[in-house]
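Problem: given the chain below (211 residues), write out its structure.
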Amino acid sequence: MVVITRVIGSLVISLASVSTAVAASSPLGVWVDHTGRGAVEITDCGGKLCGHLVWFKDGKHSKEGCNFQIIGNVKPVAGNKWDGGWIIDPDKDPNKKYDVEITPLGDQKLKVMGYAGMKFLSETMTWTRAPADLKKCGEDVATPAAAPSVSPPDEPPRREAEREIEPPATKSTSEPETKKAAKRDGASGKSKDCKLEYGGYSINVPCKALD
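Solution.
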């Protein structure tokens, strides 16, 4: 009974180790190609593999080649392999597609085999997993410039209406001097003399007598 228990325990440990190795041996991630001049990010596209260029050793290629797809439609098959899709060799002809088989070789290596219909006419490449701090070309985003500080506008000059203006001189409502004089004369009891012509003589009489 003890022997059986030990055998079962060893089997469980072995299966766990195999499961961990399979999980670690995934083709997904960023891989530096066999030339060391570029890196490809392989992602899951609806259960199939696709790959895009995401890093260039020579930065002058980043603008044109960034996110260019070179792998597509690669399906999982037996033996922890992916096959049946296509790959492009941008160094040869970016418009020509080749068949491709992808096989993880542990967690840090990836075997990429390109072929044209028959696998004995093939080219095998070994890619290496990129370091975690590799800066992808899509991440080269310029930092937005800080907004310029705006000073408050100068205080506008005071308008004419806001200035202190002396009130205009009010019109005199007093009566004309002639009327004032007449009133003064009336108040003093004096009446103005009027000249009267009578029988060839001129005599002065109070104007009131002529009313």
